[in-house]
Amino acid sequence: MGSKQIWWAVIIIVTAIVSVPAVMLASQYMLSVERGSPMSYGIDGAHLSALAFNWQDVDSQQQTFPLDEPSYTYLFMGFLSCSEICPIRINQLRELESKIDNSAKLRNLPIKFMFITIDPDNDTPAVRQQVIDDQSERFFSAALTAQVLLALSQYLSENIQAHSPIQNHVGNLYLIDPQGSISRMYTSKQLSTDKMLADLQQIIKAS
Questions:
Q1: What is the chain's mean pLDDT, rounded?
Q2: Does 151 have pLDDT greater than 80?
Q3: 135 annotated binding-site participant
Q4: Which CATH number fits domain 43-206: 3.30.1390.10, 3.10.310.30, 1.10.10.10, 3.40.30.10?
Q5: What does the domain layout of the chain look like in residue ranges?
């Protein structure tokens, strides 16, 4: 085999290898469309166990999660003096809420936004009330005991370090269904609220 033929053979093999993932992805998409369930934007969390924990609201009242009123809940953990991911997440949820309120199909459904502080000493009830709970009736904040906070952060892989002077955390966003199951996980810093809305509509329709 001449050198020219060898080069053509190499090109054909490389092209085939590169094309396989694209073909598989396209096949997965077509299969999902045929089944009436478009590919989701967020990561499917069906393999994870449902969440259940106690928390304290801004009035120092003990509450439970899942909520007493069955709701679809967007949950994220952070601290209010955070200058990186937390302000981005709050703004994303504000934008998402606006889209929900503009949707005739969604505006009257129980959809909540839950912020869990990882810095309860500084994120006092008054501060949480001002920054989170006063946003709207959909927004609420929670403080957890140190033991519950550490267990939840480890389960969600938030990488919170107990007793660390630096409040490190991942800042992922989770969509929880009324039974406490994780329907979607959003790990990107920048998110499309239009695609998140489509995820929500798909999940509600399938429930």
A1: 84
A2: yes
A3: no
A4: 3.40.30.10
A5: 1-39, 43-206
